[in-house]
Amino acid sequence: MIRKGVVSVNKERVRLAILKELENGNNAFKHVDLGIEPNALNDAVEFLQDEGYIDGAEVYVTGNYDISNAMIIEKGEDYLEDNSLLMKAYKGLKGARDWIKI
């Protein structure tokens, strides 16, 4: 069930946006920059870290995260390359809000 005023997001696009921002050296973005709920960004960061796409991220039991030292690693670079057609439409944080929405 989607709460009123909350937009459903495409998890794959959130993950790709995070990877692209990290690839571009942006370690300071927040959930509001992507236009998503905090838990959606927390979940995506945790997934990317656990699956070996990024390294150096901290995800805490409280649901908070720290990506200030996170970096994309080889598996993440491969994931971006495998999704290069989809990434052509990604315009960075300014356009992320619309790009991530379903």
From TrEMBL:
* Domain of life where this protein originates: Bacteria
This chain belongs to the protein called Phage protein
Check the record and name the Pfam families matching this protein: YjcQ (PF09639)
Q: Which InterPro entries match?
A: Phage_Tuc2009_YjcQ, WH-like_DNA-bd_sf, WH_DNA-bd_sf
